[in-house]
Amino acid sequence: MRTERNLTRRLDRVFARLDREPERPAHIDVPRMSRHRVVLFTATLAFYLAIVWAVVITSWLVRLDWQVMFFRPYQQWPQIHAFLDYYVVLGQRGPTAVMVAAWLGWRSWRQHTLRPLLTLAASLLLLNITVGAAKLGMGRLGPHYATVIGSNEMGLGGDIFPSGHTANAVVTWGILAYLASTPRARRWLSALSAVTSLGVGLTTVYLGTHWLSDVLLGWAAGLLILLALPWFEPLIAGAETTLFDLRDRWRARRGRTVPAPAVPVAPVVLKPRTAAAEQHAVAREPVASARGSRAPMHLAPGPHTARSERTPVTPVGSRRPPHADRLPRGTSQSARPVTGG
Question: How far apart are CA 163 and CA 211, in angstroms?
């Protein structure tokens, strides 16, 4: 019973927090391109170029790729193969984009802003351009299609370097941390997205669809997009304004009323009173005060007649029942009949 109560209380807190933002927030916390972020972006870019160079020159990293491939993890631990076949879906672009877009769409509708959806669209567009160009440009073959043992398999028409599953997991789940409204939520979501993307990358190595170096480059590629997003915030804000303007024009064409901007009202200039006006106002003040002291009169609707013309409400005569011992009013005491004793 105590566990059920605690779970109910936690769910109530979650739903109460969801109901806190029924309208567009006045101040949206937009991440800035700070010095710390620039340093991280530079270090990640250097790591990205180092991985590419290590593969191009067929260094120790390529030899490690072949050793992991010959190890065949899917044969060493076959009992987790079924689970990892489903887990790797967290890195596929279609299902993950639909899930995250559904959540961000609800949040956009709740807060009356298009920024969450536009940020997701911008990040996925950058992901497709950068990762897609790198895949086609380097043309590396995967482990299942390798031709020469020990070679880097570059320039042979492949499309697996960097790993698209890993980069997509970093960007798709990391965008939730980027759009978090509180620092605490941002920290928790950042850790969750890092663990998820790490698991997706290692799962592709386990299944034998990617080299280990593909996964390392995919992590770097996805992190570069998340770190570079603040540079695109002005474009996102401009796109949001343009879309809202188009919506207002469309509503106006369909005959819907659009709230008009407030028109400034010209100030009223008050003229100073003259001496005659002052005397007239002083003479009227007692009359106004006397009139104002009267109680308000509430008349019933319809024509009103004078009091003398109204018919009496009370009937003529006495309402008492006749009694033998009683005399009518106006009769003297002596007129009373004397009864014998």
Answer: 9
Nearest-angstrom CA–CA distance, 238 and 248: 16
Closest among 115, 153, 128 to 241, alpha carbons compared: 115
Q: Is 32 helix (H, G, I), strand (E, B) or coil?
A: coil
**Under a CB-based contact definition with an 8 Å cutoff, are residues 140 and 160 in contact?**
yes
Give per-residue pLDDT as tens, 254-268. 875 555 555 554 554
| CA nearest to 41, candidates 241, 274, 310, 223 | 223
Would the pTM count as exceeding 0.70? no
Residues 6 or more apart in contact with residue 186 via CB below 8 angstroms: 177, 178, 180
For residue 105, what are its two tokens?
């769409």
| Rounded Cα gap, residues 322 and 195, in angstroms | 106
- DSSP output for 108-133: HHHHT-SHHHHHHHHHHHHHHHHHHH
CA distance readout (Å), 173 to 160, 210, 222: 21, 21, 10
Helix (H) or strand (E) holding 42: helix 35-56
CB contact set of 219 (below 8 Å; sequence gap of 6+): 166, 167, 170, 197, 198, 201
**Structure confidence by residue, pLDDT tens digits, 210-252:** 999 999 999 999 999 999 999 999 999 999 999 989 988 898 8
